[in-house]
Input
Amino acid sequence: MVVLMPYNLYQPNQLIKWKQPMLDVARAEGVIDHGIAVGANFAELFIEKSLTSTISTLSHQVQSVESGIDFGIGIRLVFGGKVLYGYTNKTEADELKRIINELAAMDLRDPSIERIAFNFSKPEEAHPATLTLSSDAEVESKVAYLLAADAAARAASNVISQTRGACRQKEQHIELFNSEGLHTQDARNYIRATLTAIAADGQEQASGMWSDGGLLGWEMREQVDPKRTGDEAARQALVNLGAKACPSGRMPVVIGNGFGGVIFHEACGHLLETTSVAKKASVFHDKMGALIANEAVSAVDDGTMANEWGSINIDDEGMATQRTQLIKDGKLTSFLVDRLGSEQTGFERTGSGRRESYKFAPASRMRNTFIEPGDADFDEMIGSIDRGLYAAQMGGGSVQPGTGEFNFAVTEGYYVEDGKIQYPVKAATLISTGPAVLKEISMVGRDFSLACGMCGSVSGAVPTSVGQATLKVDDILVGGQG
Output
């Protein structure tokens, strides 16, 4: 359910506070037992209750305030290597057992396991949040932040014609039961604030964007500055408005920190998930221990980083999250492994089973994925280029699953010649493959940072962070109009 209302009518007491238990333990026992009775060798219940709030602004006006409440239960049955999944919004035992009967109709067999008694455990909260949705939606404060960011962007230049702002918050409560005795609960609080600025001069238009977010509540407002948000969004828009067409061809490229890590995430990270590795749909499926990247590259997927956007206490299969070293000094050292992936490949689980909601079965997914910082100097990287590109900010693109072939847009770029940044360029794209670009990374800087994103895959869209320090790719195909 989505509710739209004027922001001044939206009051905190309209939010429901979760006090009742998610699902009665005796009922969960009965449903799991029924899954075992129809022959499943693994049965799982995933219960979720979520609150969402989105505030949108258009320049200095509040465009909309939306709030949502969702509840549901996902049921997963495993018959050997076959996974069956269904979900419902109802909690009645008869309804849950009916779904199990429908899922198992073609796979009925004699019971092969016995349910292990539930042993309740709750993870230690490593990502505390105070200003959560169930306590106060903080609508007035969020509106004030977005309008202050808009004012800062407009003050930067009279050619900033418009801004679009958004503040999205989610409070997710989950509970899991399974036939192996697992019973656990967790709560997650997400917040993200974004401003896009549009610059216009005659027939020319350009945009810039700045975003902050994390696994915490609206106390994030103490860490963010609306003036910085507006200034940075405007700066990018103004740079792009005056940019020239980008030259094309093969050349060295320096890729900026933070969201520049989206290339590793999309073109390489997905190839390290057992979702693709188990099916041998990844070019890295048989490369464990092999040198797959330049020795300057070490990469990590870390779900433990305090209050980071992609962090979690436990994954969506109930396993504690961890820091996973994917690549060390160029060598492949680990995959991202969920429960099913572990059974299929023999690799140990890494706490990487994730899903968008109760409507999806979990799959191996990334958390905070990044290339670790090195010791190269930015001026040294730029100075080593005779003719090339500095991709200060990256945008979206397309990736071919299995091969890692990609085409990514550069949202803020500069032409480099004779070791110096010459002028801003527009309409630049980077074209290569994940395996190829890993081997071309020769220098990694010290200015490490992370950036927020949403990652879509077979188990829906989940919050993930991408990151790196500024790095140099010695040779890559650049698409441009110059």
